[in-house]
Amino acid sequence: MDAAVSAAGRLGPYGYGGVTLGMSVKQAQKTRGVVKKFGGGGGCSGWDLKAHPTGKDGAGLFISKKRGVAVIFAPKGVRTPEGIGIGSTRKQLEKAYPHLRTAASGYPVTTVPGNRRADYVFLLSRGGRIYQLALSLKTQDCVN
User: Are 107 and 121 in contact (CB under 8 A)?
Assistant: First the structure.
């Protein structure tokens, strides 16, 4: 495994669980850590990390035909190297990432420290806690 790939339990700066942003479908399959969930109708296919299966209608990552692995969602219990994960508060998020910006979607986003080609995207509940976190190529074309 490449040293740039995150330590166990860490999402980012380049990937998670041996899967890195930009990997082709074939490269991701070679890790033996992914399983296909649904096809690439819009140019992207949905996959799960074998170690972290999602529900029937979900996917743990998306692979773009053009860009390779485009988005990796954080499994429960997984945190960024800065300590942010599902359940973290808005206050913790702002402290860890002082340069947060608001995406067109309305969600807080920040450039990944150590990987300027990627963003962390955070979905917050009304109570101000993170309920979903993704590591995403800035150029991803799979999710909005």
Answer: yes
- Helices and strands, counts by H and E, the chain: 2, 10
Strand partners, 99: none
The DSSP line for 22-65 is T--HHHHHHTT-EEEEE--TTSEEEEEETTB---TT--SEEEET
Matching residue, tokens 């990432």: 97
Q: Left (φ > 0), alpha (ψ -120 to 50) or beta: where does 68 sit?
A: left
* Model pLDDT for residues 47-97, shown as the tens digit of each residue: 999 999 998 888 999 999 999 999 999 999 999 999 999 999 999 999 999
Residue 6, pLDDT score: 41
Measured between alpha carbons, how far is 78 from 84 in angstroms, rounded to an integer?
8
C-alpha 83/C-alpha 93 separation (Å) is: 9
d(CA 81, CA 63): 23
- Which residue's structure tokens are 């692995």? 69
Is 90 exceeded by the pLDDT of residue 44? yes
